[in-house]
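input
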Amino acid sequence: MSEAPESPKPGSPTGGATADASYTERLVTLEQSGIKRLLPTQAPYRWNLKRLQLGRVLDVGCGVGRNLQNCDPGSVGVDHNETSVATARARGLIAYTADEFEADPELSRPGAFDSLLVAHVLEHLDLETCEQLLKSYLPSIRSGGKVVLITPQAAGYKSDPTHVRFVDFEGLRDYAERAGLRVDRSYSFPLPEAAGKVFKYNEYILVGIVP
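output
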């Protein structure tokens, strides 16, 4: 595993630092900051999601819906931040808090979704919480469905004070194997891994298959 870059002032290892309204405000502000106002900077990431052919997605840790809005119709987002869920809904997306999701038997029934997306979530959580998160939501994914795990590389990890664990290819593979997934592939996106030392939007991506 690569040496973890230093992260400034980590937040709660159980994700508490991402649960309040100020974190939602930060996400919305980042969407509209700098060059993002002028150029379609999300286009490569939208393309990447589309080419994975994920079908109906359960997006856990959906935030304000940045990825969810690029998923197939009928896809559902879940987040522990009520303000983020409300923001995603205001954008016309289907999103629920974890409690709401669990209370709805149709949403939480086994095999209800084709794929599970966990993007930029694992780096906010301690090891035990990450394992519990995957264990909780995997039953909702059909046999043969996909699980996509995405984490930031070095520069991205250092850019957010709520990050608590650096999760690289080795870490993603470990999570996938602990969850009983078959690892299909892993890759650096949109640039080779070396670029992740300076380009904060470079990502580690692992695609696993549900038995």
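quick obs: Strands lie at 57-60, 76-78, 95-96, 113-119, 141-152, 182-189, 203-209.
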